[in-house]
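Feature request disguised as a bug report, sorry. It would help if multi-protein outputs had a clear separator. Right now it looks like this:
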Amino acid sequence: MATFNQITTSEQLEALIQESGEKPVLIFKHSTRCPISSRAYLEAKRYLEGSPNPDAAYALIHVVEDRPVSLEAADRLGVEHASPQAILLKDGQAVWNTSHARITSSALQEALS
């Protein structure tokens, strides 16, 4: 089963960006203090428990606990920070992102198909 790998450092973020040159990478930015984010996280986990893209990598950033990495991701990827937020990377670039109630299992399935 696919799982989110939590990233907490700039080096891990850089490795993910590099990895996206070989396969799609989905980053989920999650606030552990927000009920909207909790609902979106459940949707993301539902996607992973269903039929996730087996060729993709999945990463999790906790936006409060790992704020510097969260802000660096927004800056490096050119995506305005939101929480919760899903960002899809390919070839080192953000090619799709969405946030809040638009994060659903079906939206992730479509983006990663």
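(second protein starts here, but nothing in the output says so)
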Amino acid sequence: MENEKINIEDIMAEIKQNIKAQGLTADMLSFEDVPFKKTAQGGSASEALDYITSHYYIQPYKELKGNPVKVFIKKVIRKMVKFYVEPVVFEQNDFNANAVTVMKSLTDSKSADLSGRVETLELANKELLMRLDKLERENIELRSKLYKENA
């Protein structure tokens, strides 16, 4: 009985309307191509660093909406606690800015260290390949000498 109440065509029409309203197109084949609002959770470390870089500043107050009486009371309370709230928020913003700077510098130094290590390993690999090639040639020469001596 429940299945009879579900209208799949209406659901599909609603989904298609949502897709059209969001401006999504058929050429967006992967989830990475679909635009979305990034959050701090999920993703790679570089995405998280990008997020905190652009969201480290905190506003001391949010916009007040709703009932005018409640808004007025909230404004009065806000003015009464301003001496305490604003310095704390400004200190937090300073800390956040410095923390982001440190995280970026650590990320950059790690990248530089890794690129240096990769370069060293590539040189070592090239040297080992040259030595292997030389040893293979010597092995071929020795086998051919041994073959000539036994023949």
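Even a blank line would do. Unrelated, but nice: Helices lie at 2-5, 8-22, 45-54, 68-150.
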